[in-house]
Amino acid sequence: MSLSLSARTDHITQAEIRVMTIECEKVGGVNLAQGVCDLGVPREVVEGTVEAIARGYNNYTRYDGLPELRQAIAGKLLRFNGIEVDPETEVTVSAGSTGALYCACMALLDAGDEVILFEPYYGYHLNTLLAVGAVPRYVTTRPPDWTFNPQDLEKVVSQHTKGIMVCTPGNPSGKVYSDQELRWIADFAKEHDLFVFTDEIYEYFVYDGRTHRSPASFTDIRDRTIMISGYSKTYSITGWRIGYSSCQKQWADAIGYVNDLIYVCAPAPLQLGVAAGIDRLEASYYSGLCEAFRKKRDLFCSTLTEVGLTPMVPQGSYYVLADATRLPGSNSKEKSMYLLTRTGVASVPGAAFYQSEAGRNLVRFCFAKTEAELEDACARLRRL
User: Fold this and answer.
1) Taking the model in full, what pTM does it have?
2) Structural domains in the chain plus CATH codes
3) What pLDDT sits at residue 25?
């Protein structure tokens, strides 16, 4: 017998987002590929973390997080999402929302279980499913508003389907699911006895009078919904790795045990920093955040229109998919590389978000940048 990699590594490769980040570094360009928010961390969050370190919160926490953070999350879920949870048994703090999803999939899915993804999907959702041996099934949504209908769902369900993934607001599409669409998903999940996995990390980034609606706020699917979110984007702390899942105790116990096995716990003082942010920041912080990013969206999308890269204007999050048909190249990777070489602006090839060919003429940009960086990116794009 010779040494070899495990079979699961056949499905694990470096994300195209990271690949383009590296390519951007090589040319000293503007990185609009990776969703790294370059804004400042709120003072309340920093102060809460410093206080926690000074008070000696530097050891392991309980596997599902410190009580201060679990209670703060429960309060936020009630105020903002309209969901009442028990912070003692229904909230699990993990290593970012990515870690929370991985633990949920490890706890609730067996090899061969099918999970439905909406295309365009977030690559980490797909790769997490593949890493645990689950089988993705795809519903391709239709631009520019990324629509679907109940018949699209019925076409892909089978006796092996165990879950459906909902990312709202969406990455990379910026889609904010409507109440009607969420009702379709809820009815579908009940009829076929499915888990509903949600990624709501961009819940505070919604535009044009829209509001974020959590699938778990539909009481008839509360018992089957695994809500996942975090504060990496909201507080510009992507490197802190503080995320969480919320679900009923029967699922949360197993998710917490997997979290303990893989991560032990999220960083203790950073947990308290996030709790301080939740408890101390006023509502004006979140509305101001939304307005600031709407302005960035409008600036960037107007530039894309100006240079002939027609944007699918996002309803939420801070990403935009653009039509790159006018760029040379036979596929989206070649188009992204041409754009980087010509302008120094890094994007992500649309194929990174599709199993089908629907992404071959799309590229994705992240506009979560400082005003100066975004203005620089827009000026560079005008070289086209």
Assistant:
1) 0.94
2) 13-41+284-381 (3.90.1150.10), 43-280 (3.40.640.10)
3) 76
